[in-house]
Amino acid sequence: MAGQPIRVVIADDEPLIRAGIRMILISDPEIEVVGEAANGREAIEAARAHAADVVLLDIQMPVLDGLSAMPELRRAAPAARVIVLTTFGERENVLRALEHGGAGFLLKDTAPAELIGAVRAAAAGDAYLSPAATRHVVERLATGREAARSEQARVRVAALSEKERDVLALLGEGLSNADAGKRLHMSEATVKTYVSRILAKLDCENRVQAALLARDAGL
Q1: Name one Pfam family in it (predicted).
Q2: Last residue within a domain, chosen from 96, 114, 140
Q3: Residue 22 domain-assigned?
Q4: How many domains does the chain have?
Q5: What's the domain range around 193?
Q6: Does the reported pTM lie above 0.70?
Q7: Quick check: 133 and 106 in contact, CB under 8 A?
Q8: Residues 195 and 165: beta-carbon distance below 8 Å
């Protein structure tokens, strides 16, 4: 993708929200908004037609909601990374979106710089875990469900080496590869290698799922 803009599709049923997101994103010369959609069906078609790198996907939309659209979206545009747009009132929906392979989520009132950062992170192959929003929501999502998943998570994590568990714990904190490397005195490239091994061993599709597993396991 070097030298090419990040191709983004915005899917939200509210035109004003789409317009606001577009204005923020196009302020970055390395981001191009290639399509917009007012429902999940349109989002799938736009992502496929425009070869989107990132799709910003609202949960609550007519015709086909964001959660229902995700499996088909991933089949239609497998290279596209999906960032879910949400509110705190949709906690369980957010958890389902992450379990469906979403690359992260953003609150609709997120700061412009955070929105751009999330798109950049997703396009680079990372999940976006916002220290200000994602961590707080993930912690609240776990309430009432953690007990049911914690034992299974601990068994899965037990297959990791000590160093891999250290890296996984930092994923659960929302750290980037670079920040995790500083914490563990490793190079960013070494951390990236560890992350790839962790995802393979835990059968996780992305960093968000691994972060949820880390929290379930109590890391």
Answers
A1: GerE
A2: 140
A3: yes
A4: 2
A5: 146-214
A6: no
A7: yes
A8: no
| 161 lies in the same domain as 130 | no
Examine the domain organization and report whether 42 and 126 are in the same domain. yes
Which pair of structure tokens corresponds to residue 169?
A: 């714990």
Task: Give the pLDDT band of residue 135 (cuts 50, 70, 90).
Answer: low
Pair (101, 19) in one structural domain: yes
3-class DSSP assignment, residue 54: strand
Helix axes 162-172, 188-202, angle to 10 degrees: 90
Query: In a 3-state reduction of DSSP, which class is residue 37?
Result: strand
Q: Tell me: do 73 and 105 sit in the same domain.
A: yes
CB atoms within 10 A of CB 173: 16
Please write the tens of the pLDDT for every residue from 154-197: 889 999 999 999 999 999 888 889 999 999 999 999 999 999 99
Cβ 118 vs Cβ 130: under 8 Å: yes
CB-based burial label for 164 (10 Å; 0-12, 13-18, 19+): middle
d(CA 32, CA 134): 25
Is residue 40 located within the same domain as residue 114? yes
> Shortest CA distance to 11 belongs to which of 60, 68, 49, 71?
60
The closest alpha carbon to 174, from 214, 218, 135, belongs to 135
